[in-house]
Design a protein that fits this description.
77% helix; mainly alpha
């Protein structure tokens, strides 16, 4: 709230300075323990809820300025991937892959899958689309398995995958592609069954409604 009241230049410099000042107090152990510094840093690095709303087109400059302090952190690369995906999907893919390389975690795998579905949607008129979709589905399955192994299953991988596939299917239809939509539908149906088994019928119905918008 305080940052949002500052003039643009001071807003940028303050966010950069605050992010750098927090970095000595945050490491992997602090993230695992959920310390106040780690939680605050996580919010400050968030592209959708903090960086882009506050900085707009200067968001990429922000991530570049704090890279030396935060490049060890997988969340940094996740958020940077999400920040650039609309303008540079291939670069976003590299950032998301790097995040998984740093830490193979349900969150990093889900983000990678999300970026892959985005890349597939952008490339729906080319051969890269189906390949990226298959990889996104594989990484979604991996994220869910990782969540099971940690006994912390979340709805996010399910939701992100279905929304990503809807976007891809609409893009593919618009491009006149005739991909194997039957296989996609079968995979999603299995995902929906898993959703009901773990989260209940309301969550399944909500995701089913989203999937129905693909009009397959």
């Amino acid at each position: 709230a305080i940052l949002s009241c500052l003039p643009p230049a001071r807003k940028f410099n303050t966010l950069v300075s605050l992010s750098k000042a927090l970095s000595p107090y945050v490491n992997r152990l602090a993230v695992m323990r959920g310390t106040p510094e780690a939680r605050l840093a996580g919010k400050l690095l968030d592209s959708d809820d903090c960086v882009r709303p506050l900085l707009g087109q200067r968001s990429d400059a922000f991530y570049c300025d704090i890279q030396d302090a935060w490049q060890w952190n997988s969340r940094y690369w996740e958020q940077r991937a999400l920040d650039v995906v609309e303008n540079n999907p291939q670069l976003a893919l590299k950032f998301a892959e790097h995040a998984v390389g740093i830490e193979r975690h349900p969150h990093t795998l889900t983000t990678l899958a999300k970026i892959e579905f985005e890349v597939a949607a952008f490339g729906a008129s080319a051969h890269d689309g189906p390949t990226r979709v298959k990889s996104g589905m594989e990484h979604t399955d991996a994220a869910i398995l990782e969540s099971y192994s940690r006994k912390r299953l979340e709805i996010h991988p399910f939701d992100s995958a279905i929304r990503g596939l809807v976007k891809y299917c609409k893009s593919a239809h618009a491009a006149g592609r005739e991909d194997d939509f039957g296989a996609l539908n079968s995979w999603v149906r299995n995902l929906l069954r898993t959703t009901q088994e773990n989260f209940g019928p309301r969550q399944r119905k909500a995701l089913e409604d989203i999937w129905s918008s693909a009009h397959l």
